[in-house]
Amino acid sequence: MRLLKLLILVTAGFTLITFAVTMSAAARIVVDVNRGHADPLPIAVTDLVGSESDIISGGSVKDYGQRIALVVKANLTRSGLFRSIDSDAFIRSGIIEENLRNPNFDNWKAIGAHALMNGSISLQEDGRLKVEFRLWDVLGTNQMTGLRYFTSPKNWRRIAHLISDAIYKRMTGESGYFDTRVVYISESGIATKRVKRLAIMDQDGHNHIFLTDGKNLVLTPRFSPTAQEITYLSYHNDDPRVYLYNIDSGKQEILGDFPGMTFAPRFSPDGNKVIMSQAYKGNSDIYVMELRTRKIKQLTRHTAIDTSPSYSPDSRYVTFNSDRGGSQQIYVMDSNGKNIKRISFGKGRYSTPVWSPRGDLIAFTRQYQGKFYIGVMRPDGSGERLLSESFLDEGPTWSPNGRVIMFFRQQPYDNKGRGGETQLWTVDLTGYNERQVITPLDASDPAWSPLIR
Amino acid sequence: MLEKMNSVKYWALIGSALLLSACANTNTGTVPDTPTEPVAVETEEPVVASPPETVDVETVMEDPATQSSLDMASGNSVAYFGYDRYDLSSDARAALQAQAAWLQTHAAVKITVEGHCDERGTREYNLALGDRRANSVKNYLVALGVDPSRIHTVSYGKERPAVTGSGEASWSKNRRSYTRVN
Description:
Strand content of chain B: 5-15%
Structural class of chain A: mainly beta
Strand content of chain A: 35-45%
Number of strands of chain A: 32
Largest interface: A-B, 48 and 31 residues
Radius of gyration of chain A: 23 Å
Strand order of the largest sheet of chain B: 1-4-2-3
Oligomer: heterodimer
Number of helices of chain B: 5
Structural class of chain B: alpha+beta
Order of helices and strands of chain B: HHEHEHEHE
Shape of chain A: globular
Number of strands of chain B: 4
Number of helices of chain A: 4
């Protein structure tokens, strides 16, 4: 908890200076996020040049320069849009300090790089690190962007994520998603007595922290789009209800005084409301609560199960899951509960609709003939595409730029009761770049944060 | 007539009393002319002062209001459901009738009906489905005469399977209600 607070304080004191951004020559290299997998862009990411003799906790400044470069490479590679060129191939004269502002483009061209990142790192008198990087268009022989950051050494991973986001943005024209966190449910123990804990980590699995001790069953955490808050379901006192968790203070509070179970919570895009289901006397309907006034409004009234609500980014619509048509399908309604329309018509069951932060797509879980799929469709139900398939894939969550989906995958048990491992995975909208997110224990119910500010 | 006889007896008694006192006074031994009857002496077992035996005390109650009692009376306090179903099969009804009968004879007992699902559904939908199952059990028990204020319901969705396994044999055991004695 203290660590988290520190991190946030540090973030507040973060300074960033943009310098010497050469935008004149229209970028010759553009990465198309829609077909990146076919031809990832070759990029050379060099170690940040730093002093070997300046020692800070955890290594020399030069060591930190190498670590930052490693994290940048890992981020860019995981995106599927870039291919990081092995540093063994680098022509050594290309990365000495005097060439940082005047790279030998021929050397980089010779090893097939289309883009180059270089930079430096140094320790300031106030104990903070100064990190600067430049991104170069190797074929066009000009600088594409360059930024300088100041922060405390223990915050070095954020520097790496911010550099990655800057590169991603300059190359794709879209904002990145590396300087983000994921809240999820950490799982351990046998299936019949599974222990579940709230946990939070950076999007690449580092800086991992458990937020609850596992005494109460907890499920389905979701990030506030505007504050350091999580809404989730807890079985505190064996009474499943929606709670709010403040990441800064660790304070937890129950949301509302409902007679029945409340579940499936999600914030509105402005962070001022929580939309959720209440199950009362065997019937689940959708409700919305104004967080400031705690006023509650019932949005659906139907004998069917209505659950998993999610707002459109402009707050005008809500998509949700209902079996009012006889089986689970996805519906869209106005955010006042009117004009309910079914949008999924494929075979099988559809559930867990989540509106993309870009507004253009709705991600969902589909069950069909014994398999589970993660897919996307347009808000009118057209253009359905399935991105992943397994014995059990479930619970999509969007990266803040709407380009990557994280979900969880459970392995089947064999006839000796072995198996059942549950892990987090990411897949981009092309459906080709599927990768596991490494967590300390089993993991489910991921929720991606907005970009950290 | 009666008085005359009494007076004769009286005098005879006085006579013998005088005779006896004369003997005592003179201390001369006289042998009674009739032999004394033999005294039968019974030999007794020796009495041993052993410590008191311990006594085990049990409360007299033929059928305690425990979970195991309900389990025994009603086939483990469960009722099973079909895939994505919450209506009660005839087997489920029979199991719940046994539960209701037990609850009638244990009128002070309060229960929690848990609704559970198999793993073949998404988490939030299964929470709603588990709530439906718990409530159809509650409604049936109430229809059989159990006071609704004795019945609490809770849904665990797919979070607490009874058995571990991926296959219909396991899933059918996990789609269940469980009646817990509070």
